[in-house]
């Protein structure tokens, strides 16, 4: 049966891309053209600028990405106006037929996870197609998301081995049998994933594996062959395209790679006076950065260097 992994793989084939662009808008890095009328004492005014910024990004990347990934914190910080900007961003991305991965990193006791799952995988205003889930509360924390995803033909990405430098402090803890915690979690995810595969042999239950940990990814890929990986940490966090071939299967599928700052603020590297960048120039630079990242990833995902 077709599941959301199939939708993601079909979209990736259609666009010839495994790139996901993160929508992590930070007003500090917006040029003057978007800030000229902003009243910094008003969350509404800042949120309007954020929405304008997101529209520029979406216009620039829509033809070259498999999905966009709004990070919730950047919207929540502006309260209800920030959430409104997220809602509008999601509907704008939908109007461009983009897949939406809400990077919400949610997870709670069962009943609360079920409420989060309705918010992010139901048909509400900030609902997307997939959501990142923190599985460290245990199965009653993550199963409601998996059940909602199955019911609504959507998908989840469970945090497994995250890209940040201190992820080893918890995720690499050694268990009594000598196995690492994230590895045990990979085995648990595989038990669910292998029972829910679609026509491309992948489950709608994906896993987050950081681009900064290619060695670990190689072993995880072997243990968890039925989950699509969401691979953040490419670009600004130091993850390099040439190290990423191990994340993919032999057909060049099995992973989507996300970059936020490296793409959405690409205009900051272009001139010393980036504050003066115009909207047209921004769109051009962001478009070029997305095409470059897409091509770098295409070069490695079909390589036999794994
Ligand atoms: O779930 C995520 O998206 C995520 C997981 C992870 O392990 N590491 C990670 O950086 N992320 C998110 O991916 C984005 C990375 O942003 P850049 O480093 O600017 O590309 C941020 O929004 C992070 O919250």
UniProtKB/TrEMBL annotation:
Q: Name one GO molecular function term.
A: orotidine-5'-phosphate decarboxylase activity
Return the EC number: 4.1.1.23
Using the record's annotation, list all stretches that form the Orotidine 5'-phosphate decarboxylase domain.
18-274
Q: Name one GO biological process term.
A: 'de novo' pyrimidine nucleobase biosynthetic process
Please provide the record's keywords in A-Z order. Answer: Decarboxylase, Lyase, Pyrimidine biosynthesis
Q: Name one Pfam family in it.
A: OMPdecase
Catalytic activity, per the record?
Answer: orotidine 5'-phosphate + H(+) = UMP + CO2
Q: What class of enzyme is it?
A: lyase
Q: In which pathway does it act?
A: Pyrimidine metabolism; UMP biosynthesis via de novo pathway; UMP from orotate: step 2/2
Catalytic-site annotation from UniProt: 105 (proton donor)
Q: Which family does it belong to?
A: Belongs to the OMP decarboxylase family. Type 2 subfamily.
Q: Which NCBIfam families match?
A: pyrF_sub2
Q: What is this protein called?
A: Orotidine 5'-phosphate decarboxylase
Organism the protein comes from? Paenibacillus solanacearum
What's the encoding gene here? pyrF_2
